[in-house]
Design a protein that fits this description.
It is built from twelve helices and seven strands. The longest helix has 28 residues.
Length: about 350
């Protein structure tokens, strides 16, 4: 049997956590340890942790953050503790403390992990009209982003019930993000890390309309989507610079030939690319990647040629009723398509996380 530690981040937990630990104690399996991370719970909830300490359970380890740091920070604290203190484990199972995850659901994930100890196993819930709207909407949006940018079809991106292989856990402790975006990034970057995500159906449990959840809809949603939003903002700024210069040049030359379109594209794209590279390198991808300037330059050349050529093609297809704006309209259509392709290339090739090398 593959030995596993259980990690439970907890912020202001109630008796659900106490009941969960009691049920875990009854499991006859290779659960090597139960690690609970108190993420800065207030004084009124400290009796829960005192009660846990009174169990005198040798497998139970309780860690404390003096102040609340976020679920991602609590998970990283627990992952790091498990890696340092239990070198014999092959995986680390994460569970929520609010009663949404049952021991039976954990055992289903563990059985899947026993068969595939190199996979990231996640417990997936069934979403229907009985599920709180914010949970259904958030999961739909994040699942769509994962599908778009990683080509992985993951039905439940927000589940906290996961079994993480040790090799991937060693990478996760270095991930940025201390809140809910950490769990999202865990799925988003699994493919690039060579980790297969395997889903296991689990019961869908929401107690009292999920009021115990500490998910802050606006703030945590922005954190989850921050990288894509920053990339979008960077591309939007560059897009306006690019389109503005391109339109100005085309109005000055008047003749919409392939040569003029290519020249205008190269001039506009070169200047906007300087802005785009600096923002992406320093703010979006945090200096990640090696030889990024050279790789970005290659992407820029390919993208310029593709933009110029396909803009010329689309210009010829569009009606002339728009006059001098026809090439600009064509360029907008082409560049919106190239935007998605550019994100994939920059994230997975140019600014791929690993050893950081400044340019």
């Amino acid at each position: 049997m593959v030995q596993v530690a259980v990690l439970i981040p907890a912020l202001n937990p109630d008796q659900q956590l106490v009941q969960l630990i009691r049920k875990l104690q009854q499991v006859q399996s290779d659960l090597l340890a139960f690690v609970v991370v108190d993420d800065g719970s207030d004084n009124s909830h400290q009796p829960v942790f005192h009660k846990l300490a009174q169990f005198h359970e040798p497998k139970l380890h309780i860690l404390h953050h003096v102040q609340n740091q976020g679920k991602g920070a609590a998970l990283k604290t627990g992952l790091n503790y498990c890696l340092q203190h239990f070198p014999q484990i092959r995986g680390i199972a994460t569970m929520d403390s609010d009663g949404q995850h049952t021991v039976t659901a954990l055992q289903s994930c563990l059985r899947q992990f026993q068969r595939n100890p190199q996979h990231l196993v996640i417990g997936t819930r069934q979403f229907n009209q009985k599920i709180p709207f914010r949970s259904r909407f958030g999961n739909l949006l994040t699942s769509g982003l994962v599908r778009t940018f990683t080509h992985q079809d993951i039905s439940d991106t927000q589940t906290g019930l996961r079994v993480i292989p040790v090799a991937y856990a060693q990478q996760l402790v270095h991930f940025p993000g201390n809140h809910y975006e950490f769990e999202f990034d865990m799925l988003l970057k699994a493919k690039a890390a060579g980790v297969t995500v395997t889903e296991t159906p689990i019961p869908t449990i929401y107690l009292n309309g999920n009021r115990a959840s500490h998910f802050r809809v606006v703030r945590d949603s922005l954190a989850i989507y921050s990288r894509f939003l920053k990339f979008s903002a960077s591309s939007l700024i560059s897009f306006f610079i690019d389109i503005g210069l391109f339109s100005l040049i085309m109005m000055l030359v008047e003749v919409h030939s392939l040569r003029n379109i290519l020249v205008a594209t190269i001039i506009a794209r070169s200047l906007s690319a300087v802005v785009n590279y600096l923002i992406n390198h320093h703010l979006v991808f945090g200096h990640a990647g090696q030889r990024t300037l050279l790789k970005y330059g290659c992407l820029l050349v390919v993208q310029m040629l593709a933009s110029g050529y396909f803009t010329s093609v689309v210009t010829g297809i569009l009606p002339d009723s728009a006059g001098s704006l026809t090439p600009t309209i064509a360029k907008i259509i082409v560049d919106l398509t190239l935007f998605i392709l550019s994100y994939w290339v920059q994230r997975d090739v140019i600014f791929k996380e690993g050893r950081h090398v400044d340019n």
